[in-house]
Amino acid sequence: MLRVVLHLLSMFFPRDRTTQHNTAMSKLEQALLVIVDTFNRYSGKDADKTNLAKSELKELINIELSHFLEGVKDPQMLEMLMRDLDLNGDAECDFQEFMTMLTIIATACHSLVS
């Protein structure tokens, strides 16, 4: 399934990124691009642009998810969150681990409003 999705997206996102797609995107498509862009903005602050260091994750949560997670003020909470997210044990949060966090948050939101 991932291969099919990547193929379909490759037609929408040319490699050179200078070509703009003329079709108006849905809100869901826009939201997905915002998620990718947000991750990239915060992960790009240190030498490794593919992962969020703990400090980058904390900053992202405190700025972008402050209403949902009320910020990460307690260092122990950040440690617990990072430990739970860090599935591969590299002490950083990659995009897949980040998406796991967003999925959990979205699921919790859905449960609260349903």
Task: Summarize the topology.
Elements: H1 2-12, H2 27-43, E1 51-52, H3 54-64, H4 66-69, H5 75-85, E2 93-94, H6 95-113
Antiparallel strand pairs: 1-2
Helix pairs in contact: 2-3
Integer average pLDDT: 83
Cα end-to-end separation: 29 Å
Number of helices: 6
Class based on secondary structure composition and strand pairing? mainly alpha
The Cα radius of gyration reads 16 Å
Poorly predicted parts: none
Record field, number of beta strands = 2
| Topology order in helix (H) and strand (E) letters | HHEHHHEH
Estimated helix fraction: 55-70%
Major pleated sheet: 2 strands, antiparallel
Q: Judging from the principal axes of the Cα atoms, what is the shape?
A: globular
- Beta-sheet strand percentage? under 5%
Task: Strand order, main sheet: write it out.
Answer: 1-2
Can you give a write-up of this model?
64% of the residues lie in helices and 4% in strands. The model has no long low-confidence stretch (mean pLDDT 83). It starts with a helix and ends with a helix. The chain has a two-stranded antiparallel sheet with strand order 1-2. Helix 2 (27-43) crosses helix 3. The protein is built from six helices and two strands; from the N terminus they run H-H-E-H-H-H-E-H. The chain is globular, with a radius of gyration of 16 Å. It is mostly helical. It has helices at residues 2-12, 27-43, 54-64, 66-69, 75-85, 95-113; strands spanning 51-52, 93-94.
